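Q: My labmate handed me this sequence with no annotations at all. I'd like to see what the chain might look like in three dimensions before we decide whether it's worth expressing. Could you predict it?
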Amino acid sequence: MTDPSDPTPIPRDLATLQVAEAARASALAAGHRVEVECSPGSESTYVHVCRDSRWYGVRVSCHAPAYDCSIDYAQVLIEEPPTAESIAAAASRAEELAVRGGAVVADPADVAVAIAKIAAVMADGRVFRDADGTRWRWSSDDDAWRQIGRYWGDGPPTPPAHRPNPAVGARIRCQVRHAQNTSAKWAAEHEG
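A: Here is what I predict for the chain of 192 residues:
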């Protein structure tokens, strides 16, 4: 952590990582499982803590949440521009939330599986033309490329070695995460 008396601004991504690391360390010291995820599109960092078989989430960021799934988390906002002092204050709040607070969220592993399933479906039917001019279509059911065009080369055709790049954008990932978080909250409310 940086020196709290130093007024020099700190890069936003470094600031959120420092605060998230403080929360992670506190949760681990308390004996909890922890998963940390960084937003692919911003400096936001998400700390997931499993306490008593339930996952709680804390969002560490320098800006207000933009997506519904971001709103699902307890918020720790770092003052702009981030300084050592504002990072120390945010870290203290994040440590407390990681041990005794946060908002009920979905298991991050379950969310990853749900997103992977959607990615597989979105990749289904992608077409690829190899160097020999042979066309291949991805089958998500078979998890493999299927030849769909004539092959003019020598020997048996070789399917592409890569997997298609599914276009699962931020909006879809966030909608899936929000749906999973909502289900987790409903289950927690039902269980009491």
